[in-house]
Amino acid sequence: MTPAPNTTADRENDQTVTERRAYEAVIERLSKASVDKHWEPYADIPWDDEDFLVRQDDPRWELPGVDRLGGHPWYRAQPPEVRARIGLWRVATAMKIGLQFENLLKRGLLNYAYRLPNGSPEFRYVYHETIEEGHHGMMFQEFVNRTGLPIRGMPGPLSLLAQITPWIPLISTELFFIFVLGGEDPIDHVQRKTLREGQIRHPLEETIMRIHIAEEARHISFARHYLRRRVPRMPRYRRFTLGIVSPVVLGVMARIMLSPPGSMIRRFRIPEHVVKEVYTDSPETAGQIRDSVAKTRELCAELGMTNPVQRGVWKAMGIWAAPARERAR
């Protein structure tokens, strides 16, 4: 029988060992789940089934009335084929931006894995995640190709600036995994909501979305557990800096993922007043962006990264809401 710890140092050492084992057990479960349940984009999606074919004038692409743009009188006044193309353009752009983000993510994960020591449990999981993100990129690009639309994804200057992202793990792995959550949480939030509310009508979009949600749940879980383990061990000044930078990253990423593509606005000549009513000046859209980062915001609060100064940055980025434990008081 292991004797009880006699000193504070012994108790702290035992706690550290227990926490490490619990953390490694989570990673092992995630790695096992990646083996037990995964999808192959060209084996598990019936791309050429008649019902899954992508046609630009398919009415199933029309935006639902609960969508801010879909319910606007300007959109409802458009011919059915135009409404369908606008809806398809939005879906395809979201997938193109998603595969571009995951391209950056994969390169960053490999930079992180490159320096991991032998025996590191993170190494195996990171490679599982990289493979799954590769599959997501293939299914997203296949979808974009089948639309026949000239989808670009991220604007050129933003795409160029984003090339620094894969190098972030060489500076701060904690900041990199905040970036990961900034790209994955908003999309996960929106996809779960649209499926829950029955807003998806085309089976190809639904199939891709369900695969993405299932595998991203593991990726999000790993990032959260990694941050829970690492952030409390950071020097105070670094944790403070991370708390300042995090809301900037999250606010920018959420807007990239959820805002309407400028190419779509130009292509379909959506009037400026419609864009303002639906997106720019809409309290509902601002609330959606704020809600999309709620889980990461709660995590940052849990990790002590929302002091008054840091909270001011969250408010400036338009994504602050009091943590659940504060609202419960």
TrEMBL record:
The keyword Transmembrane applies. The keyword Transmembrane applies. The lineage of its organism: Bacteria, Bacillati, Actinomycetota, Actinomycetes, Streptosporangiales. Keywords: Membrane, Transmembrane, Transmembrane helix. InterPro entries: AurF/CmlI, Ferritin-like_SF, RNR-like. This is Diiron oxygenase. SUPFAM superfamilies: Ferritin-like. The chain crosses the membrane at residues 240-258. It holds the Pfam family AurF. It comes from Streptosporangium brasiliense.
